[in-house]
Design a protein that fits this description.
The complex is a heterodimer of chains A (383) and B (136). Chain A is of the alpha+beta class and 383 residues long. Chain A is built from seven helices and 28 strands.
Chain lengths: 383, 136
């Protein structure tokens, strides 16, 4: 079986495209086999929703009169980058407020912008002959500013590790609270619904691929930072925590996003972040693509890493499947650990379902990537 | 047989009393001290009482008669459903298994009757969806 992007888009326009989620693909292929499933299905939708720290937004705040070249900028007390042109800035998800108590950061500013809330802007600059003003304090919102687009240098990790803790104290990490003596283990992947686990070699996902981003439309703009093709593979997909995996850099207009899928996070003891809903459609171009979309949680594995050891090379205790992780309990290296997720499978499912609905109702067509993402990539160390 | 949780407040005159002994011997209650703290004005305790409805009622009047103030603890933790994203950050860290991931719907379920009022979930929640309804 062979199918082209044009054929799929033609069916979408006629309202005849058959679209299923990656979760439904597991069941369908199990029931009918790869060949029959590939004959029936045009598009498989994926989804993920979790903390993606390498996220942020470019904003152009507009010019005041007299104008100011802003070099120190805060939005709701959160510092934004002051090293771009006069009123351009970048607000990053993990930048935290200086205010006592914390709990608010760049991720929350972005959520508030998407929600249409008013944002308190305080900025100062050197004052120049062309930008005479030195200070400004005012209120902005998504409606009042010129431009606002999300640009996330690294999202949608292909797979990630499972975190546990051998030490005798509770650790507060970006992987959540890790109880002493291996009492729990946490993980963060949508597993069988996750975009890059359903197209593990990026045969269909490339630069220019149109996606669901934060409830609106976005695009794959580049390979994500720390893009790595060197991870060990099992059942055709990289094992989480065995050297990372592929990642995506994503871009999309904040206008049109939905605050339901753009949530500021406050991870206790670590800092702030942003939960982003990402959904990638996978065109069923041939049987192989269909087969890869049918991977299930029982076939996807992640290494269990000991965060009790404060090293870049954390000891690996073993590997477990996402089916085991989702059961609530794993046994690894002689330790029984309670497990829980940090990314929301429920929202990952909502993303995939919503994208499916868009495609079924001709609100979203597929794009041919303009350039494929790299076949090779590895992570360099800082010495 | 029912189980209810109460917040007890002691003062300087009754803080030496053995409440548990009286509850067991006089009221046939199975007490379980979940938290206890002594402070300047006496002390505070979170106590679970298991027993017949009538026995618990009698025990409550007894505690009142010896000037121990008592307050029913219902839904110690409160969850704001509009903030909760059902991620699961609260699930494996809860010592009393009050949170559970529904395997089908993938909703994080909260059974407040299991809650031991430790408050561990509050800071574990990245969206600030869980808050205290009552402090010890």
């Amino acid at each position: 079986m062979k199918r082209t992007y044009d054929e799929i888009n033609e069916k979408i326009r006629k309202g005849k495209a058959v679209v299923i989620t990656a979760e439904e693909a597991v069941a369908l292929v199990k029931e009918k086999g790869v060949k029959k499933a590939a004959d029936e299905v045009d598009v498989v939708t994926t989804g993920t929703f979790g903390a993606m720290c390498s996220s942020g937004a470019f904003l152009n705040l507009g010019h005041s009169d007299p104008p100011i070249r802003m070099t120190n900028i805060t939005l709701n007390g959160v510092q934004a980058y002051g090293g771009l042109a006069a009123v351009d800035t970048y607000i990053g998800a993990t930048q935290m407020t200086d205010k006592k108590g914390g709990g608010y950061g760049g991720g929350h500013v972005i959520e508030d912008l998407v929600a249409g809330k008013k944002i308190h802007l305080v900025a100062s600059g050197p004052g120049t002959d062309c930008y005479t003003r030195k200070n400004i304090e005012t209120t902005v919102s998504l409606n009042t500013i010129n431009d606002a687009y999300m640009y996330n240098p690294r999202n949608s990790y292909q797979n990630y590790c499972v975190a546990t803790n051998s030490s005798d104290r509770t650790l507060q990490t970006y992987m959540g609270k890790l109880l002493p003596n291996f009492r729990n283990a946490t993980y963060s992947s949508a597993g069988q619904l996750s975009p890059l686990l359903n197209d593990p070699y990026l045969e269909t996902i490339g630069i220019g691929t149109r996606i669901f981003l934060g409830g609106g439309e976005g695009f794959v703009s580049w390979a994500g930072t720390q893009y790595n093709t060197q991870a060990s593979v099992i059942n055709g997909v990289p094992i989480g925590g065995s050297g990372g995996g592929r990642t995506l850099a994503l871009i999309g207009n904040l206008r049109g996003m939905d605050k339901e899928y753009v949530r500021g996070l406050d991870i206790f003891g670590y800092g702030t972040s942003l939960a982003v809903g990402v959904g990638v459609p996978i065109p069923i171009l041939n049987n192989d693509v269909m087969k890869r979309c049918s991977i299930s949680d029982a076939e996807i594995f992640a290494n269990v890493l000991d965060y009790g050891v404060p090293s870049r090379e954390r000891p690996v205790l073993g590997s477990v499947s996402y089916a085991d992780l989702r059961s609530g309990k794993i046994e690894c290296n002689g330790h029984v650990m309670r497990t829980s997720s940090l990314s929301s499978y429920k929202y990952a499912r909502k993303v995939a379902e919503e994208l499916k609905e868009w495609i079924e109702n001709d609100k979203f067509t597929l794009t041919v990537p303009s350039t494929p993402l790299p076949k090779e990539g590895s992570v360099r160390r800082l010495r | 047989m029912t189980e209810k949780k109460y917040k007890l407040r002691f003062n300087n005159s009754n803080m030496h009393d053995s409440v548990s002994y009286v509850l067991v011997s006089k009221f046939n209650i199975m007490p379980n001290v979940l938290q206890a703290k002594i402070d300047g004005s006496g002390g505070r305790m979170i106590l679970s009482m298991k027993g017949d409805e009538k026995d618990i009622e009698n025990a409550i009047s007894y505690l009142g008669s010896v000037d121990i103030s008592i307050e029913l603890m219902d839904n110690y933790v409160k969850r704001d459903e509009t903030r909760c994203i059902d991620c699961g950050s609260c699930v494996s860290i809860c010592p009393s298994f009050a949170f559970e991931m529904d395997k089908v719907t993938q909703d994080v379920l909260l059974d407040t009757s299991k809650c031991l009022a430790c408050g561990f979930c509050i800071s574990a929640c990245p969206t600030h969806a869980i808050s205290l309804k009552m402090n010890l």
